[in-house]
TrEMBL record:
This is non-specific serine/threonine protein kinase. PANTHER family: SER/THR-PROTEIN KINASE RIO2 (PTHR45852), SERINE_THREONINE-PROTEIN KINASE RIO2 (PTHR45852:SF1). It catalyses: L-seryl-[protein] + ATP = O-phospho-L-seryl-[protein] + ADP + H(+); L-threonyl-[protein] + ATP = O-phospho-L-threonyl-[protein] + ADP + H(+). Its EC number is 2.7.11.1. Its cofactor is Mg(2+). GO terms for molecular function: ATP binding; metal ion binding; protein serine/threonine kinase activity. Keywords: ATP-binding, Kinase, Magnesium, Metal-binding, Nucleotide-binding, Serine/threonine-protein kinase, Transferase. SUPFAM superfamilies: Protein kinase-like (PK-like), Winged helix' DNA-binding domain. SMART domains: RIO. Belongs to the protein kinase superfamily. RIO-type Ser/Thr kinase family. It comes from Methanospirillum stamsii. GO terms for cellular component: cytosol; preribosome, small subunit precursor. Pfam families: RIO1 (PF01163), Rio2_N (PF09202). One of its GO terms (biological process) is maturation of SSU-rRNA.
Length: 286
């Protein structure tokens, strides 16, 4: 089910309060018993039952009987808490349509003071195992690992966007809450969809941007024709949650993979050959 602007607009303040209670109580329970929601939300049990039925209709919480009866938040509910927070803070005033849906995110158009992009990070159970690798501070036993992993993924991307601001052509980060990042809208298309008249110049520009990011301590980690946009004038590098630092133990491999992916695209599409040693030293400066 998709997050709907109408569902968010018509949310009652008690529904938000219940979502917040369930979110909070998920630290203690794998399924949150209704009595606990009543206590935590300080609403009557009749009100909680009525509101929770509405939240289930909107696909924001789920009910299960086993191992005992209770409720959990699902992605739509978590996204909703984040998006309503951004609305309350005045970052966005309306939510538009979903313009991108990947394995680990959903991207929406929205309106703030100008066009805004909302990226909802959604790391499921399976991907979480990959995110956990090498990150010992992520708790082993957490009732809702997808909440932690999705929040963590958004934080990583937000960190890269904030640090690279004014140094690399990337969207400007505007705000972050839970698993959602608000950023500026980049006009244009992905390289995979833009026929280039000047591919040599564009490849040069990409390498110079990758170099600028590297100098500031960021290797993209998923560089490809799908994560570079071109607006007819300049390129923009998007989709940063999997960045690694040049000090990471696999930094050399990850950088090589990025550079190979992008140069292979230029060879396939435009027959531009690149010498990998030159490309690598261009980016690393050694
Ligand atoms: N700031 C942005 N401006 C315009 N379009 C964007 C922006 N960020 C993402 N998109 C669109 O959404 C798609 C998915 O976003 P991306 O960050 O690459 O996430 P993922 O590939 O993990 O799903 C992009 O390919 C692009 O078409
Ligand atoms: Mg992408």
């Amino acid at each position: 089910m998709h997050l709907s602007a109408d569902h968010i607009k018509t949310l009652h303040k008690y529904e938000i309060r219940i979502l917040q209670s369930v979110e909070y109580l998920m630290n203690r329970y794998s399924l949150v018993p209704v009595d606990e929601i009543v206590k935590n939300s300080r609403l009557s049990s009749g009100e909680v039952e009525f509101r929770i039925a509405k939240l289930m209709e909107k696909g924001m919480v789920k009910y299960a009987q086993v191992p005992y009866p209770g409720y959990t938040l699902v992605f739509n509910g978590y996204d909703t808490l984040a998006v309503s927070h951004l609305v309350k803070k005045g970052i966005i005033s309306s939510l538009g349509s979903c313009i991108g849906e990947g394995k680990e995110s959903r991207v929406y158009e929205a309106l703030g003071t100008g066009p805004v992009i909302l990226k909802l990070h959604r790391i499921g159970q399976r991907s979480f195992q990959t995110v956990r690798k090498g990150r010992s501070y992520l708790p082993e036993k957490q009732h809702c690992p997808w909440v932690i992993a999705s929040h963590f993924s958004a934080e990583q991307e937000y960190l890269a966007l904030s640090s690279l601001q004014n140094h690399v052509n990337i969207p400007t980060p505007l705000a972050m809450n839970r698993n959602v990042i608000a950023m500026t809208y980049i006009p244009g298309d992905r390289l995979s969809e833009s026929p280039l008249e000047n591919p040599n110049e564009v490849l040069e520009e990409i390498l110079s941007q990758v170099h600028a990011a590297y100098k500031r301590g960021y290797i993209h980690g998923d560089l490809s024709e799908y994560n570079v946009m071109y607006d007819g004038n300049q390129i923009w590098i998007i989709d940063w949650p999997q960045w690694v630092s040049p000090n990471h133990e696999n930094a050399a491999e990850i950088l090589d993979h990025d550079l190979e992916t992008i140069t292979k695209f230029f060879f396939r599409r435009y027959r531009i050959s690149s010498d990998m040693d030159c490309v690598r030293s261009r980016v690393t400066g050694c």
